[in-house]
Amino acid sequence: MKSQKSLKLADQQFQNISKHLKILNECGIIDFNQIGRERLCLIQPQKLIPAFLWIKQYNKLWEDRIDSFENYINQIQNKKNE
Amino acid sequence: MSDLSNRTLTIEKTFNAPIKVVWDAWTQSEHILKWWAPNGMDIKVIEHEFKVGGKWKYSMPMPDGNEFISEGIYKEIIELKKIITSADFKPMTEGVELQTYFEADGEKTKFTFSVVHPTPEYCKQQEEMGFYNGWGSAIERLETILGTLTNK
Questions:
Q1: Which chain B residues are within 8 Å of A17, Cβ to Cβ?
Q2: Residue B12 phi/psi, 5° resolution?
Q3: CB-based contact B139 A20, cutoff 8 Å
Q4: What distance in Å separates the CA atoms of residue B100 and residue B78, rounded to the nearest whole number?
Q5: H helix and E strand count, chain B
Q6: Which domain holds residue A16?
Q7: Do residue A23 and residue A52 come from a single domain?
Q8: How far is A52 from chain B (nearest CA, A)?
Q9: Do B99 and B132 sit in the same domain of this protein?
Q10: Same domain, A20 and A53
Q11: Averaged in consecutive runs of 10 residues, what is the pLDDT profile of chain B (152 residues)?
Q12: Is residue A2 part of a domain?
């Protein structure tokens, strides 16, 4: 996947965010590519997939728990109505 | 980035039961035992002090023999209306806030449940410790920073 957008940063701007970029690079989310004086920074979106999977799984846990709560309430109600 | 929607999971439902039934089932330990754990897994209620400042602590055995502990402290309780509690799910998620709202709708009950994740300050702290659990928001922050820098 290639991003169509590109952004040029002055040295100072790059300094300001270099710490963030470094962490993202350590996580494999961005790659650096030096071309002459320019340092290209490429996003690797596929590296985010595990994070999204984790979030999905985590959300599902809560959805399941609330479903389980609903089932339980329905059980109580049915008993009452018997 | 204090926008709650970026760090909140919300589930809304309407239950087919009067508010008193829903409230009791949500707040009393003998009921919680029946629904808290997924798929009828075992759960132990270690502590359950349902009052502001009171502590709750549940434990579920994991297949590897360890215990999965969920615990928190009630911050706010408004009878038949609202419950706010802190919550730690060790080792998965720590420092979240659970917000539950109840509203009577005839014989039914409107229910809104939110899991609010830690503040950006907390995330930043985690980030500085080299621990990354909010990649999505990190990207958003990066975008924001890039936006402010390039608009100058």
A1: 142, 145-146, 149
A2: -115, 140
A3: no
A4: 10
A5: 4, 7
A6: 7-43
A7: no
A8: 8
A9: no
A10: no
A11: 68 92 93 82 91 94 83 96 92 84 95 84 54 46 57 48
A12: no
The count of structural domains within chain A is: 2
Q: How far apart are CA B55 and CA A36, in angstroms?
A: 60
Q: By three-state DSSP, how is residue B142 classified?
A: helix
- B40 phi and psi angles, rounded to 5 deg: 65, 25
Burial of B113 from C-beta contacts in 10 A (0-12 / 13-18 / 19+): buried
Tell me the two tokens of residue B46: 């270690």
Give me the phi and psi of B32, to 5 degrees please.
Answer: -55, -40
Nearest by Cα to A71 from B17, B122, B72: B17
H helix or E strand, kind and range, residue A45:
none
One-letter amino acid identity for A56? K
- Whether A1 maps to a domain, the answer reads no
Chain A positions touching B139 (Cβ under 8 A) are 24, 29, 48
Helices and strands in chain A: count of H runs, count of E runs = 2, 2
* A14-37 pLDDT tens trace: 788 888 888 889 888 889 888 888
Residues A49 and A38 in one domain: no
Task: Count up the domains in chain B and report the number.
Answer: 2
Whole-complex ipTM: 0.72
